[in-house]
Amino acid sequence: MKKISIALTFLILCLQAAHAQDKFFTKSGKINFNATAPASPEKIEGINKSVTCVVDTKTGNMQFAVLMKGFEFERALMEEHFNENYVESNVYPKTEFKGAISNNATVNYTKDGVYPVKVKGKLSMHGETREVETDGKITVKAGKINASAVFSVTLTDYKISIPALVADKIAKKANIIVDCSLEPLK
Amino acid sequence: MTRKTIKYSFIVVVLIIAGSVFFAFKEFNRTKKDVADIEAAYTLSSNDIISAFSSDEKAANLKFLDKTIAINGLIKSNDKDEQGMYTIVLGDSASMSSVRCRMDSIHNQEAINLKTGMPITVKGICTGFNADEMLGSDVILNRCTIKIN
Question: Does the beta-carbon distance from A75 to B28 stay under 8 Å?
Fold first, then answer.
């Protein structure tokens, strides 16, 4: 009886340890929002370095969340326009992605290397949710994981309209560049 | 109209145009104000702001979003990223939730000697609440500076 209970305890501990190492996360990931039109003389880009991101290495499920007010632009005026006129961050404070790595089986999370991945899921921004799919990269190095991907989104899909006056500067398609260094979730 | 009136009105028009160009240029190149120079709209403890957001996120967003806020609390951890930028995490070490204060680049060095467990007041711009069941829910402050207790 004693032996069984010891074995059981050991088994439970092992399972817990295995479970704990499945998930990787960060609360200080980076997202770069770039809507610079090809002919624009100035950069229209903002960066947010407080991105929450979780990747479940077992299932390939991944999600990230970012607060729109946390995007920093070079010019104060640009930042105000981004918040007030385009993404309306007072009404829609958060952008979220929930999805999965479709070719998760090809990634060996225990072996160092760079693995190309396909990411598919739902992106919610400005009160609109759309199916998105893109290519990304998982880098495994010394027990840590870096997840990066570029989402190209058509702004009108998310009901973000660009006034004619600045249409030559702001691209119709914005790049959302995600870069997260993840640590094991304990 | 005399020659004189034409001359003066011409000068006035030129002055108005020059003024608006100058104003537009200044506005276009305006930089963000240093948070250290902005007076905090609210001063409260890390636990109080976390509970304000957890109980009613909408109301808390209306009250705190985009405002300069001073938060006092105990340092749970002081994280440094790859670029050497610090994020001071305030809150109860037993709880998953915290206030995450990302330092402003010009005030970053103020965070170098801060250790876990120290009481501190941090001033920054509130960018909102990131609720997550698994990771704990956080209030995020951006462009932070340290206001000595």
Answer: yes
Distance from the Cα of A70 to chain B's closest Cα (Å) equals 5
What are the backbone dihedrals phi and psi of residue A138, each rounded to the nearest 5 degrees, phi first? Answer: -110, 125
Reported ipTM? 0.82
Q: What is the pTM of this model?
A: 0.85
| Residues contacting A107, CB < 8 A, separation 6+ | A57, A101, A115, A117, A138, A140
- Chain A hits for B126, Cβ within 8 Å: 69
In tens, the pLDDT along B50-66 reads: 999 999 999 999 999 99
Which structural domains are found in chain A, ordered by start? 22-184 (2.40.128.110)
CA A108 to chain centre: 20
Q: Which residues contact A83 (CB under 8 A, 6 or more apart)?
A: A68, A69, A71, A89, A90, B66
Mutate to test the interface with B, among A31, A44, A52, A84 (most CBs of B within 10 A): A52
CATH number of B35-147: 2.40.50.140
Look-up: residue for tokens 């990223």? B81
How far, in Å, CA of B135 to CA of A53, rounded?
10
Q: How far apart are CA A68 and CA A104, in angstroms?
A: 29
Which of A27, A65, A77 shows the shortest C-beta gap to B30? A77
Distance of CA B121 to the CA centre of its chain: 14
